[in-house]
Sequence to fold (529 residues):
Amino acid sequence: MTATDRTTPSATAEEEPGYSRRWWVLATMTVCLLVVIMGNTILNVALPTLQRDLGATQGELQWVIDAYILVFAGLLFSWGVVGDRIGRRKVLLIGLAIFALGSVLAAFSSSPVQLIAWRAVMGIGGAAVQPTTLAVITNVFPPGERGRAIGVWAGTAGIAVAGGPLAGGAVLQHFWWGAVFLIGVPVALLGIVAILAVVPESKDPSPGRIDVPGVLLSIVALAGLVYGIIRGGSGRGWATPGVLVPLIGGLLLLILFVWIQRRSSHPALDVSLFRNPAFSAAAAALGLNFFALQGATFYLVYYLQGARGYSPLQSGAALIPVAIGMAFMAPRSARLAERFGAKAVCGSGFVLIALSFTGFQLLDQTSPLWLLLLILSVQGVGMGAVMAPATESIMSVVPREKAGAGAAVNNSVRQVGGALGVAILGSVLAAAYSAHLGTAVNALPAGVRAEAGQSIVGTLEAVSQAQAAGDPEAARAAAGLVEPAREAFVAAMHLTAVGTAAAALIAAVIVLVWLPGRRRVTPSIVARG
Fold:
């Protein structure tokens, strides 16, 4: 079968054996996926270093993460339509080029604002690459092999989630923080060469137009919502106009976005897909899975480097069990879903996730390393059990020729869930930390108390500055703040982990009620097979 054969799907596409070089295509798609996800997760262990070297505030750090995620989520729909229209191979090449350029510019940022801007550029490229990899896999693999291929795709995402922090920690041991953005550039170039060599072109024979107003509306709505959450959790007060206006405005704009999409002849998001209970439940499952994953990774790095005093490399290595668990379970979960149904597999996965975050209550500054690794392993296995079956549930509802749009929905709920996880859980963590630290922060100079009271890294950095100032009395007073700060952070993390576990239990209920169970095979299908 040639690349041209895949360009215009036929009515019998579901019965075709698949593109002959499909496993090479899958390998290329995993490389592209690694570039984009590691380019994002590699930043996690660098956050404390950024706070020190760039003078970034806690809110700016959250926006360094969310600028990428929000632009990514807002452009997914449009890139999906573009890929279905002009060809997914072309979109992959464009996306990798933009992502690599944004990475280089981010590496040489001189201020938090510049870094936030270039992270947004990276989000433009990532929005083109990540969903398109899934759309290409859906097109080149026949139904009988698609579940396994998506399992490998999901497992690769798991490797990248914790592989990024490990790579970032290794780089920070020897180079400046900007080098973490340069690691993926040669890999992106390798991906471009591989795409040109083995990936066939595919597109929708009846593509739709791009809904530019819809895309812009979704970006503004999500940005307003997350901005309000970040400000509310940063100690400014949830009832203040600076919090309520973006929060309520963002919600209203999201409602308006859905209303417009339902009536548009060329929607950025086909909201009619959500009328299917299985589709909606799978989308909610993915969103809540990444809510927990992204949010937890955000505060785990602060726990490891702040409360336990790990180096960036050590903290990155400590996250390996999450990647191993996801990489091990994701490919197997597709087969388990075929045997027991997506409902049972995803529901069990969320129960494991909830148990892992409940286990966070056992962690403090001196808890044994094996306990942390065990908890994170359970978390990784649970998340791996959710990703592949939920993804397959979404893609099985979408027509093959609309794979780009379906992949865009799949990735948008993942990224929006991740953005809200960082915003909500990061805000809860900051507010709880400030409350537990209380008046102890008064041991620091008045000019640094407000920011130091928002994060443990900010507190420890302020202590170091006070000790370096040359005033022995102020240095002694500041040094006495280290232990209370670590205790306050652990207490805040315990509270935040309870919220994360609650989100996982809510997700378990959703999938157990609405996700389909084991598929029954009819005799007629068996006869045809």
In short: The two ends are 21 Å apart (CA to CA). The chain has two domains: 17-210+268-438+485-521, 211-267. The chain has 20 helices and no strands. The CA atoms of residues 18 and 141 lie 5 Å apart.
